[in-house]
Write a structure and sequence with these properties.
Length: about 425
């Protein structure tokens, strides 16, 4: 159980996650206990256990986050809840990310990726930090559509990144600390969002349905509506969910392609066929074309497996639960270990080798969980995939790139694992494109 009170938290945040989790599974088996972030925890490293917690017996395990993080995002965010409230919020989010909506977003995502790469041309920049900017812009687009003025967009971005910087800091309320600055920025975000909501209600229904309009216009059978607090918490929650995870995956994809020139050439050949069919960029990329990128899609999936950005998820037992002869006491945290499952050679042979071809055949059920499973699985996973496919298309068809100042083998945690320094890359536009 590690040190008193601190448990193994320090080891979790300083060790390579592959080493931290796999060494304990090797020593104790697929079910073991530890102490993290001030709580006793049960870790479960099998597909069957993950399904037990997240799907078949999900009612016995409520979503939970450390209190400081819940306060930062907002207690009304859907991923802190179960039951009717969670169900209605999830439906609203899913409806704003339906295929017909994503189809309409392709030109805007393509334009944003193109502009970001153009601004990078000839410079050495941190891939991860550039990807965070792109993911934030995509989150804003999804939430507000094209109905947000530049001033409000800039104010949201400025304050959001202060919150983001303090999110994983020590929860210290003293003035000047990262956490205190983040709390103050969080209040400003709430005020800005309140002004935007008031304007949206005054203007009425928008032609193109975005997430904010879905929240503002929703009514239940009794005419009840969502409060401003509920809407602002869920908007900030969507921004958090959409940003670092997608940015991390994009960073790893750039690294994996850089490290394997033959794979990069194969992905480039697939994408150049689409690029040339569009008159070498004179015609826009289409939704249908993003559905016809099999190799690039396998690279995306293998990157999700290898990097396992979300190593685990937190749940809390709402009652004493017995599993496989073990008692999980009420109040203990329960952590299905996605990373261990993704790196288990029983399900993925030679798991530490980057091999996109393994996804030519679908993985066994419950063995590939990059977006979670059950009612709390990520509702924005298709948006994230679309964003990644479009970015890769523009990157490999129009640019060359090289990692600078590091071989990319060292990993840092923010808290998601990313190559050291966010993978500094020099990028330049290919002549004639």
């Amino acid at each position: 159980m590690g040190w008193p009170y601190f448990g193994e938290t320090f080891q979790l945040y300083t060790q390579n996650p592959n080493v931290f989790f796999s060494s304990r599974e090797k020593r104790y088996g697929e079910i073991f206990k530890t102490h993290l972030l001030g709580y006793p925890c049960v870790m479960l490293a099998s597909p069957e256990a993950a399904r037990f917690v997240l799907v078949t017996h999900a009612h016995l395990f409520k979503p939970t986050y450390p209190r400081s993080k819940e306060r930062m995002i907002g207690p009304c965010a859907l991923f802190f809840h179960q039951g009717d409230y969670h169900t209605k919020l999830r439906k609203l989010v899913q409806s704003s990310l339906a295929p017909e909506t994503l189809r309409r977003l392709v030109p805007a995502i393509d334009s944003a990726a193109t502009a970001m790469l153009r601004s990078w041309d000839g410079r050495v920049l941190s891939t991860f930090h550039e990807m965070k900017k792109l993911s934030f812009d995509m989150g804003i687009l999804t939430i507000f559509g094209g109905h947000l003025d530049k001033y409000r967009r800039d104010e949201l971005k400025k304050n959001y990144f202060v919150v983001d910087k303090g999110y994983n800091s020590l929860p210290n309320k003293f003035p000047g600390t990262l956490y205190n600055k983040a709390i103050e920025a969080r209040r400003r975000l709430r005020d800005i969002l309140g002004e935007i909501m008031e304007e949206r209600r005054h203007k009425g229904t928008t032609v193109d349905k975005d997430l904010l309009s879905s929240f503002v216009e929703w009514r239940d059978t009794k005419g009840n509506k969502l409060t401003d607090e509920q809407i602002s918490d869920n908007i900030i929650g969507v921004l958090f969910a959409a940003q670092d995870t997608t940015a991390s995956v994009l960073t790893w994809i750039v690294k994996y392609l850089h490290d394997d020139p033959k794979l990069l050439d194969a992905v480039k050949a697939e994408q150049m066929a689409i690029y040339e069919s569009n008159g070498c960029g004179r015609q826009p990329l289409t939704w249908a074309q993003t559905r016809r990128m099999p190799l690039t899609h396998w690279v995306l999936l293998e990157s999700l497996r290898m990097a396992s950005i979300i190593s685990f998820t937190f749940r809390e037992a709402v009652a004493d639960v017995e599993y496989e002869g073990y008692l999980i006491p009420k109040g203990w945290k329960v952590m299905p270990l996605f990373r261990n499952i993704h790196h288990n050679p029983k399900f993925f042979p030679d798991p530490h080798k980057f091999n996109p071809s393994r996804f030519e055949i679908s993985p066994k059920p419950n063995t590939f969980l990059p977006f979670g499973n059950g009612v709390h699985s990520c509702p924005g996973n298709e948006l994230a995939k679309l964003e990644i496919l479009i970015f890769v298309h523009r990157l490999v068809t129009q640019y060359r790139f090289v990692v600078v100042g590091t071989d990319g083998s060292e990993v840092e945690y923010s808290p998601f694992p990313v190559p050291k320094l966010g993978l500094p890359v020099r990028l330049w536009r290919m002549p004639g494109v």
